[in-house]
């Protein structure tokens, strides 16, 4: 549940999207914090939240959430219209 | 005797399209000739890296690979051909490089890089390029490059996605802030099994060409000292969406 009506753009990594049929690489949603982004992703794609957030709760250590060059924690506020990049490491060569 | 390696008439003609560029010129071409670059993996990324750096006249290319060429490598590992199936990848790549540019010296390291041998291998080179295919090697390369103060051009691919960045965590930026390293970007590898390998998930061949060629470009920039290397920036390529995005990142070690 978003605490405000601000819209943000969320970009998801390919390896995550591959696990959730129908999930897009880019979606818009209403969210005021990183935690709200993950809540909304989990609502739309059940189980995605567990892939991104552990039980502490915190963002999993192999996952990064970047906005405007900053690595954000769950509680970080988001500015309206920002682009939220969720990244995971890949290893293929 | 000058410290700058002399370029022969044949080399001046071979590299004429470089030398005519003011950013490269004769001095830049001499820097390329003098450079010693270590390439980890002669696979999908390593193939274009080795081909372009050999063609560009990098004087010494070290190759670390303990694998042999298999038929299923050939849709992307374009430095190897059908005749090379079953041969050592290092030897196959060395022969291909000799055909591209006989002025290049190849140093073969037919072994698996790990935490025990990484620093010894890397210490003998000016620059490291990671085209390996697993997290253990990637963390070993990144840690050893940082410990040996060697710039690392890191890239990885999977399915239709690629990423590339340049790591110089032993240096500071213009404001005196320490540059980020691989562990600032990804503090630890994903749990085993979470991120599938290329063998499991597949990889489109041309993607390794795009991303490996970007690695070669970053290496040439670092060697010649031109342009803005991807330091503190991660370039993401989504081939299906035909999107390039660049994400800035900072040193964040020991932060949760």
Automatic annotation (TrEMBL), chain A:
Domain of life, per lineage: Bacteria
Protein name: MoaD/ThiS family protein
PANTHER family documented for this protein: SULFUR CARRIER PROTEIN CYSO, SULFUR CARRIER PROTEIN SLR0821-RELATED
Species of provenance: Oryzicola mucosus
Gene3D superfamilies: 3.10.20.30
From TrEMBL, chain B:
InterPro entries hit by this protein: ThiF/MoeB/HesA, ThiF_NAD_FAD-bd, Ubiquitin-activating_enz
Catalytic activity, reaction form: [molybdopterin-synthase sulfur-carrier protein]-C-terminal Gly-Gly + ATP + H(+) = [molybdopterin-synthase sulfur-carrier protein]-C-terminal Gly-Gly-AMP + diphosphate
GO molecular function: ATP binding; molybdopterin-synthase adenylyltransferase activity; sulfotransferase activity; thiosulfate-cyanide sulfurtransferase activity; ubiquitin-like modifier activating enzyme activity
Domain THIF-type NAD/FAD binding fold: 15-253
A Pfam cross-reference name: ThiF
Record's keyword annotation contains Signal: no
Keyword Secreted: no
Top-level taxon: Bacteria
Keywords, ordered alphabetically: ATP-binding, Nucleotide-binding, Nucleotidyltransferase, Transferase
Gene3D superfamilies on file: NAD(P)-binding Rossmann-like Domain
Any one of the GO CC terms: cytosol
NCBIfam families: PRK05690.1
Subunit structure: Homodimer. Forms a stable heterotetrameric complex of 2 MoeB and 2 MoaD during adenylation of MoaD.
Function comment: Catalyzes the adenylation by ATP of the carboxyl group of the C-terminal glycine of sulfur carrier protein MoaD.
Family: Belongs to the HesA/MoeB/ThiF family.
PANTHER family linked to this entry: ADENYLYLTRANSFERASE AND SULFURTRANSFERASE MOCS3, UBIQUITIN-ACTIVATING ENZYME E1
Full protein name: Molybdopterin-synthase adenylyltransferase
Annotated source species: Oryzicola mucosus
